[in-house]
Amino acid sequence: MLIRPTYAKVNLGAIKLNVANIKKHLPNGAMICAVVKADGYGHGSTMVSKAVKEAGAEWLGVAMPEEAAVLREEGVAGPILVLGPANLAQWRKAAGLDLSMAVVSYACVQNALTVSRECGVKMRLHIKADTGMNRVGVKTLEEAGRILDTIAQEDCLELEGLMTHFACADEADKTYTHLQNERFGTFIRLVREKGFAPIIHAANSGAALDCPQFAYDMVRVGIAIYGCYPSDEVSRDVLLEPAMSLHTQVSFIKELKEGERLSYGGLYTCDKTMRIATLPIGYADGYNRLLTGKGEVLVGGRRARVVGRVCMDQILIDVTDIDDVCLNTHVVCFGEQNGNRIPVEEYAEKCGTINYETLCAISPRVQRLYVED
Questions:
Q1: Residue (of 124, 55, 70, 59) closest to 95 by Cα position
Q2: Annotated catalytic, 264?
Q3: Domain that holds residue 202
Q4: CA-closest candidate to residue 35, choices 214, 74, 213, 22
Q5: Predicted pLDDT at 373
Q6: Which DSSP helix (H) or strand (E) runs through 252?
Q7: What is the DSSP string of 259-321?
Q8: Which of 37, 53, 93, 174 is catalytic?
Q9: What is the torsional sign of CA 222, 225, 228, 230?
Q10: Assuming Cys at both sites, which of 69, 264, 288, 306 could form a disulfide with 351, CB separation 3.0 to 4.6 Å?
Q11: Of 197, 226, 255, which residue sits at a domain end?
């Protein structure tokens, strides 16, 4: 039940549609690892996880064991891959949650061995080859060989996967992506020469959409399952439907005279008699302060501009030329209303950021309303 008038609507039907459309685009047999880290990119990891699994995603991806713990506590079963590096305490946590873990260095194998012996469980490992992202990962074939030899010698360790991460797959020029894939091929050959047959996966959203030939056994799809393309340069051949929209209501309305100033610092001065509406949403909710003087919202399907500085809990909008605005009038900050839309990408561009950050930044104090439209 909604109490606060500010909320994010999450369309689980859209998420299921996106998973299904991506699945159709991939070679037969390629699995989907739906990335639900960062609380499902702000959409709610538990609800998203259940939806994507219903839609056919075989795996879930998280950044750390703590995120996986939330899913397990909510009854989410099945394979979960921890994509990021972990310290020894996190490896111990993972051991009790039936997780698969990324190996980004030989030290990870040592942690896995320690924890496996302590807890009496087999640790399932995915070696992460650094083919050019240069963030984390096994850089050389020599280190990869050492890791593989250790796994081969220890019954308590299992090589379940081999992966890499493309740095530029969301760009129109795929030259670097092809180079990374060639480098990844050397790791694949080494693994197979050593007698292993793990799950091979490399493609993120950009590669899954634009380079399905790099799907291998599985793709790791994040932003695309939420209905957003990773950049303007990625093709729109696969239909994606945005899953989240941000809503609020008018909480106060007033008429101000020419010359009156608005909000902190008086940045905006009325140039005529104006009707100004207050909305109960601010930067503590994830409505970015950088939208001061630049943001727009939809009121009755019409755009209304943000005037004055964005506050922690409230913003002001100009509704002078919009009829029938009163207390509790419905407002859309991004999303669709009456056939008009403010895309989350437009919102993000005005803040100098990307759709990923905008979605993740919606605060936990903004209640999520789940629908199946």
A1: 124
A2: yes
A3: 12-226
A4: 22
A5: 85
A6: strand 252-256
A7: T-EESGGG-EE-SS-EEEEEES--GGGT--GGGTTT-EEEETTEEEEB-S---SS-EEEE-TT
A8: 37
A9: positive
A10: 288
A11: 226
pLDDT attached to residue 346: 96
Instruction: Tell me the C-alpha distance between 310 and 41, whole Å.
Output: 23
In this prediction, residue 2 carries a pLDDT of 86
User: In angstroms, rounded to a whole number, what is the distance separating the alpha carbons of residues 315 and 293?
Assistant: 11
Contacts of 44 (CB under 8 A, 6+ apart): 10, 368, 370
> What is the number of helices (H) and of strands (E) in the chain?
11, 20
Pair 67, 107 in one domain: yes
Segment 81-84 long-range contacts (CB within 8 Å, at least 24 positions apart): 81/33, 81/126, 81/161, 83/35, 83/37, 83/220, 84/136
> Alpha-carbon distance 90 to 110, whole Å?
13
Residue 333 has a pLDDT of 98
Residues of the chain short of pLDDT 50, as ranges, are none
**What's the CATH number where 348 sits?**
2.40.37.10
What's the pLDDT at 372? 95
Is there a domain that residue 143 lies in? yes
Whichever domain contains 183, its CATH number is 3.20.20.10
> Are 155 and 296 within one domain?
no
pLDDT at 1: 78
Q: Which residues of 175-200 are buried (b: 16+ CB within 10 A; e: fewer)?
A: eebeebbeebeebbebbeeeebebbb
> Residue 2 falls within a domain, yes or no?
no
Number of separate domains in the chain: 2
Query: Residue 336 falls within a domain, yes or no?
Result: yes
The sign of the CA dihedral 103, 355, 51, 216 is negative
Identify the pLDDT of residue 164. Answer: 98
What gap in Å lies between CA 68 and CA 81, rounded to an integer? 9
- Rounded to an integer, what distance in angstroms lies between the CA atom of residue 308 and that of residue 45? 35
Residue 156 phi/psi, 5-degree rounding, is -85, 0
Backbone angles phi, psi at 61, to 5 degrees: -120, 135
Q: Is 278 inside a domain boundary?
A: yes
What φ, ψ does residue 329 adopt, rounded to 5°?
-60, 135
Q: How far apart are CA 33 and CA 31, in angstroms?
A: 7
Please state the separation of Cα 2 from the chain's center in Å: 24
- How many C-beta neighbours within 10 Å does residue 213 have? 10
Q: Please measure the distance between the N-terminal and C-terminal CA atoms of the chain and give it in whole angstroms.
A: 18
